[in-house]
Write a structure and sequence with these properties.
globular; about 375 residues; two-stranded antiparallel sheet; mainly alpha; two-stranded antiparallel ribbon; 14 helices
């Protein structure tokens, strides 16, 4: 119930402020013009990330006054680190949404935010391995932490191209990660780092719930770079608050020892689709001799539209892929691995079929038309909508 308080406060504040920002933006025309690369067809405000940030701040403030969250706030520097880095990211995101910053400025801001997180104590100190843990030197720990934070933020930002996509994917991924961190917290006696990770996930879940009603297709409000980068930062902070800071050999659930690789595997699993899209985009652009942060219209969600899925179908397919992979990974904690592997394989096959349905329905004539170059494929933003 204590986490429901955090979810509720974050959701209510985010929704109320999102509605206020929407009305204010429409009244004073605080929205950019439609670009050739955009998927949406009408000017839409994109300052929803500000509402999400304030919702997160208020939820943390309320939680800090409740005795039941005392363990989560036992290390204030970590809380200040998360909120301070979030503020920097939101300011960078808002500036980019308004003035379209160059990629080097944005990357510098992301590195600073990652450095603040690491400085506050949210780092990967150890790497769980079967049979024990590997301890990292301070310099390597810092470098890996900052790299992980920047990677996750950009992966989330890269899929921010359809109505409700980032908010929905983050809601599913953080829901699974919350269950994971909460179960571990119970098994470890509600230790402070696990309680803090659960609180971050709960607050982010609330922000996504509050924002999604105005962002689902057809979206009235976008979260912009400020929101997408904030979501990525909080997801990274939650994962880092657990991964590499506890000994997996000490965790048991249901009489079974948790596999040592789960602390590393689960954060990757819940972000597998954004990470895949990010890696493909970087490789694609480098091969073309372009900056890895240059815009194009070849992201996974654009490809789903190009093969024949509707806007809503493409978003739901992302949801399903995220849910199957994330749930399939965490289920190894509770279900015999043989049975869960069968579930995961079947789930992935179903996802593949759902993704390929438009291709299966195509006639030879449709294939010829689809093969012709289209001017709309020339360019698109990786942060058009959210």
């Amino acid at each position: 119930m204590r986490y429901l308080i955090a979810v509720g406060v974050s959701a209510v504040v985010t929704f109320a402020l999102s509605f206020f920002i929407l009305k204010l933006s429409l009244k004073y025309r605080l929205y950019p013009k439609i670009r050739e690369r955009d998927v949406h067809t009408r000017p839409t405000p994109r300052l929803g990330g500000v509402a999400m940030f304030i919702g997160v701040i208020v939820a943390f403030a309320v939680a800090s006054q409740l005795e039941v969250f005392s363990l989560a706030f036992s290390e204030p520097m970590k809380v200040y680190g998360v909120l301070g880095s979030a503020l920097i990211i939101v300011l960078i995101g808002v500036a980019d949404d308004i003035w379209d910053l160059d990629w080097m400025t944005k990357l510098a801001g992301q590195i600073i935010a990652g450095g603040i997180l690491a400085w506050s104590g949210i780092q990967i100190y150890t790497i769980p391995i079967p049979g024990g843990t590997a301890y990292l030197p301070p310099t390597i720990s810092l470098a890996i932490t900052v790299f992980a934070v920047v990677l996750v933020m950009n992966a989330i930002n890269f899929i921010d191209g359809l109505d409700g996509l980032v908010a929905g994917v983050a809601l599913i991924a953080n829901g699974v990660f919350f269950i994971y961190s909460y179960v571990l917290a119970l098994g470890a006696g509600n230790s402070e780092y696990l309680g803090f990770a659960s609180l971050i996930s709960a607050v982010l879940i609330g922000a996504c719930i509050g924002f999604l009603p105005l962002n689902f297709h057809p979206a009235k409000l976008f979260m912009g770079d400020a929101g997408a980068l904030l979501v990525g930062l909080l997801m990274a902070a939650s994962a880092l608050s657990i991964t590499g800071q506890v000994d997996p050999a000490s965790w048991t659930y249901g009489g079974q020892l948790l596999p040592a690789f789960i602390p590393i595997l689960l954060p990757i699993a819940v972000l597998i689709i954004p990470l895949l899209d990010f890696c493909l985009a970087v490789l694609r652009r480098l091969r073309a001799g372009k900056s890895p942060f240059s815009a194009d219209r070849l992201h996974l969600h654009h490809r789903l539209l190009d093969i024949g899925h509707t806007h809503l179908q493409a978003v739901l397919i992302f949801y399903i892929w995220t849910a199957v992979i994330a749930v399939g990974c965490i289920a190894y904690m509770f279900v015999p691995w043989q049975l869960n592997t069968v579930f995961l394989v079947v789930g992935l096959i179903v996802c593949g079929v759902l993704t390929a349905i438009p291709l299966l329905r195509r006639t030879p004539l449709d294939a010829e038309v689809a093969a012709e170059p289209s001017p709309s494929v020339a360019d698109a933003s990786h942060s058009t909508t959210s």
